[in-house]
Design brief:
By secondary structure, the chain is mainly alpha-helical. Helix content is 79%, strand content 0%. It contains 5 helices and no strands. The chain has helices spanning 2-16, 24-37, 45-57, 59-66, 72-106. Helix 1 (2-16) packs antiparallel against helix 2 (24-37). The relative contact order is 0.14.
């Protein structure tokens, strides 16, 4: 739990530094967030995106994250959405490359 608190504190610092969604610094923090969730279960990309949305729409999550900073719930939704978009894009690129390799090998 302490690790999660550190992650959210680092996201507040990134937000206060006006770091945009998709920046390397923000994505590095979100990779730590993603790895932290993996201590409990392996989230799908849909689950990660849903968490980002819930953090900004669910009153209980809003209350939790506003303890760090009033604007953190909205920032979380934005940066988690962009992070998941990048993961989805990377997955598609890999799938296309694998398909191309398979087709080259088969003929």
């Amino acid at each position: 739990m302490a690790e999660a608190g550190d992650i959210y504190a680092d996201l507040v610092a990134a937000m206060q530094d006006d770091l945009p969604a998709g920046s390397e610094t923000v994505n590095a923090i979100l990779r730590r967030w993603h790895d932290n969730i993996r201590h409990f279960y392996e989230p799908t990309l849909d689950i990660l995106r849903g968490l980002g949305t819930l953090y900004n729409t669910d009153p209980a999550f809003q209350k939790t994250f506003r303890k760090f900073h009033d604007d953190l719930p909205a920032y979380l939704e934005q940066v988690v959405g962009a992070y998941v978009d990048e993961l989805e894009n990377a997955e598609l690129v890999k799938m296309l490359a694998d398909e191309e390799t398979s087709q080259s090998l088969n003929g």
